[in-house]
From TrEMBL, chain A:
Locations listed in the record: Cell membrane
Transmembrane segments: 6-21, 28-47, 74-96
Organism (species): Croceibacterium selenioxidans
Name of the protein this chain belongs to: Na+/H+ antiporter subunit C
Gene3D superfamilies given in the database record: 1.10.287.3510
InterPro entries (UniProt xref): CPA3_antiporter_subunitC, NUOK/Mnh_C1-like
Entry keywords, A to Z: Cell membrane, Membrane, Transmembrane, Transmembrane helix
Membrane topology: Multi-pass membrane protein
Main localization, broad class: membrane
Extent of the signal sequence: none
Highest taxon in the source lineage: Bacteria
Entries under NCBIfam families matching the protein: PRK09094.1
One Pfam short name: Oxidored_q2
Family label: Belongs to the CPA3 antiporters (TC 2.A.63) subunit C family.
From TrEMBL, chain B:
Organism: Croceibacterium selenioxidans
Alphabetic keyword roster: Cell membrane, Membrane, Transmembrane, Transmembrane helix
Every NADH:quinone oxidoreductase/Mrp antiporter transmembrane domain range: 137-435
Protein name: Monovalent cation/H+ antiporter subunit D
Top-rank taxon: Bacteria
Protein's membrane topology: Multi-pass membrane protein
Family, per entry: Belongs to the CPA3 antiporters (TC 2.A.63) subunit D family.
Length: 112, 539
């Protein structure tokens, strides 16, 4: 489980970093989205991995070792919403830039 | 529960602009005057509330106990619920934000709020994000408010559209989205090690972290710091700043003058609060701040000499200002904070006034006719043909004399020449640095010479541009509107006031600096005197 998660975060981050260094605006956006997925998984991992453990502490058995940490899940939800909104906004700016400059290069001209 | 309502005043700087922004969304773009009045009233109320909060903080006396007040949202106890904290520094930043907000809003009413849709809404949301970032007492909410202020700033930067703005906006948005991801990684690492994100709780837990967790926590703090420093524009993370700010509409750029100070604020808050008294955490990151800040000043100095437009000059003075603040924080390890905070206020106000003035001065040359297609169907595009005198049409005579005077005034503040507040601030920083230790190390000497050199470079660059723009006779200077001249005048008067009342202001700043070092008091007020306590007292 740990290995799969770590590999997932690593692959997402590596692909994302490679993509945001590319010259095309669309690649940059996809790169940022991939990194945001990696970061979301990473926050999730910060709450320790547990399989089949409920995230809420009941009154019957308040031993925290038996439960999953609910806070990172709440944080991840917020982070997902925010990065989703930012990606949408970035897409609009991308289209505006494409329309105004006629190219999808990040600097607005091909630069030979 | 008789005098209870003043306790709830702390939420007003966040709730008020949020509600007003929502309200302005319901109004049609054609009801511009109504929207403008809603925004204006809100910002006036904000200024009033933050002045009250500042008075509340100052009323506890300069010698007395910490003026920190925690507001527990929903009455949940501190490490579990969301907490807003007001203390000397937060109150100061709130007043600064609403002051700049008011002046830039009045300025924009003359023309710029018509240059694109939804200006007032974005403007109010920007203020909400700034206020929230200054008030919040935990790291994740700091992230959320950063995102609010960034999202609003994306909209404001693009306000008015045009190729240059969209290009700069694309870079600005990409860089800041990437920074937010770094912020999240830092927050996740800190949470993973300490199990909390409440700043007061962190201040207790961080000194106790040891063993294999330590490198994890330190890298978390370093990544978080990188995100803050990128906002503050530290070299080499600040390369995007002059270009983006130069592309923004002038009132927007003027408001952005405080945006880079949010990064400095976050560094101050987090590092001084979490720094801890002993062990590894004390003085963690000081060298980075010192050398990074010095590199930033050097970069800004070179950049300001190389700039050919006044917008760029202003952008690099933002960088110099950030660099001076960061280096002085790093060098003093929290000891010269009085001067640092004085400089923060003075340079922010000065740069804000400078951005507003630039537009007025350069207006003769620019052709402002940006013809854009409407994006929303109710968008009011007719206003883009300016020249018609409308409700703000009180035109002042002797335009060039006023502009020239204001320009000289501004340059004095930014470069730190006597007799204005910039000089007092730089003097206080240098005095503080010299008084640190009996033996002064070479980095401190280097920093002092860099601070003085950067002032010299600012004078050279601005004089060059000033001669070019003000002394060259133009046939017919454009008329100056009252709504544009008054905000600049008010900002410059504020700088003058800072210099005249330097004594009491400096005492306030010194006290603020002390309160930042007082972790015990902060933790006591936020964590220990919880809502349950308050409840018991009110019964």
């Amino acid at each position: 489980m740990e290995a799969v998660l770590a590999l997932g975060i690593g692959v997402f981050t590596a692909a994302g970093v490679w993509l945001i260094l590319r010259p095309r605006t669309f690649q940059v956006i996809i790169g940022l989205s991939l990194i945001s997925y990696a970061v979301n998984l990473f926050i999730y991992a910060a709450g320790r991995l547990k399989v089949d453990a409920p995230p809420l502490v009941g009154t019957v058995n308040p031993d925290p070792a038996l439960f999953d940490d609910p806070l990172p899940q709440a944080l991840v939800l917020t982070a997902i919403v925010i990065s989703f909104a930012m990606t949408a906004l970035l897409l609009v700016v991308l289209l505006a830039s494409r329309g105004l400059t006629g190219t999808d290069h990040v600097d607005g001209d091909e630069g030979e | 529960m008789s005098a209870g309502w003043t306790d709830h005043l702390i939420v007003a700087p966040i709730v008020l602009p949020l509600a007003a922004a929502a309200l302005t969304l319901f109004l049609d773009e054609r009801q511009r005057r109504l929207k403008a009045s809603v925004a204006l009233l809100t910002v006036l109320a904000l200024l009033f509330v933050s002045t009250l909060l500042l008075q509340g903080a100052a009323s506890s006396g300069f010698a007395g106990e910490p003026a920190t007040t925690a507001y527990h949202l929903g009455n949940w106890p501190a490490p579990f619920g969301i907490v807003l904290v007001i203390d000397w520094l937060s109150a100061l930043m709130l007043v600064l934000t609403s002051g700049l907000g008011l002046t830039t809003l009045v300025y924009s009413l003359a023309y710029w709020d018509r240059a694109g849709p939804r200006f007032h809404t974005l403007f109010l949301l920007q203020l909400m994000g700034l206020n929230g970032a200054f008030l919040t007492g935990d790291l994740f909410n700091l992230f959320v408010f950063f995102e609010v202020l960034l999202a609003a700033s994306y909209g404001l930067l693009l306000h008015g559209s045009g190729v240059q703005r969209v290009q700069a906006g694309l870079h600005y948005v990409s860089i800041n989205v990437a920074t937010s991801l770094l912020f999240l990684i830092g927050v996740a690492l800190i949470y993973g090690v300490t199990g909390t994100l409440n700043m007061a709780d962190l201040a207790i837990r961080i000194p106790a972290v040891a063993g294999s967790d330590l490198p994890l926590l330190q890298s978390g703090m370093a990544i978080l710091g990188t995100a803050f420093l990128l906002k503050a524009g530290m070299w080499p993370l600040g390369l995007w700043l002059p270009r983006s700010y130069a592309a923004a509409a002038p009132p927007v750029a003027a408001l952005f003058a405080i945006l880079s100070k949010v990064g400095v604020y976050a560094v101050l808050r987090v590092y001084l609060l979490l720094g801890g008294e002993g062990g590894w955490a004390a003085n963690f990151g000081d060298e980075w701040l010192l050398y990074g800040g010095m590199a930033t000043i050097a970069f800004g100095t070179v950049g300001i000499l190389a700039s050919r437009t006044l917008m760029r000059v202003a952008g690099y003075s933002v960088i110099i200002s950030s660099g001076t603040l960061l280096a002085a924080i790093g060098a003093g390890q929290g000891a010269v904070l009085g001067g640092v905070l004085f400089y923060l206020v003075s340079s922010t106000v000065g740069i804000c006034a400078f951005y507003l003035l630039i537009e007025l001065i350069e207006r003769n040359e620019a052709d402002a006719a940006l013809k854009v297609e409407p994006v929303f169907e109710d968008e009011y595009t007719g206003s883009l043909e300016t020249g018609e005198e409308d409700e703000t049409g009180v035109v002042i005579p002797a335009t060039l004399a006023i502009l020239g005077g204001g320009f000289v005034f501004c340059v004095l503040v930014i470069s730190g020449l006597p007799p204005l507040s910039g000089f007092v601030a730089k003097f206080a920083i240098i005095h503080g640095l010299l008084g640190l230790r009996s033996e002064i190390d070479w980095p401190v000497w280097a920093l002092i010479s860099l601070i003085i050199l950067s002032g010299l470079a600012t004078i050279i660059a601005t004089t060059r541009a000033g001669i070019d723009l003000i002394w060259t006779p133009s046939e017919q200077p454009q008329p100056l509107h009252l709504a544009e001249a008054v905000p600049v005048g008010v900002l410059l008067a504020a700088c003058l006031g800072l210099a005249i009342f330097a004594g009491p202001t400096m005492r306030y700043m010194e006290r603020t600096g002390q309160s930042l070092g007082d972790r015990q008091g902060y933790v006591q007020k936020v964590l220990i005197e919880g809502p349950a306590d308050k409840h018991a007292r009110s019964r």
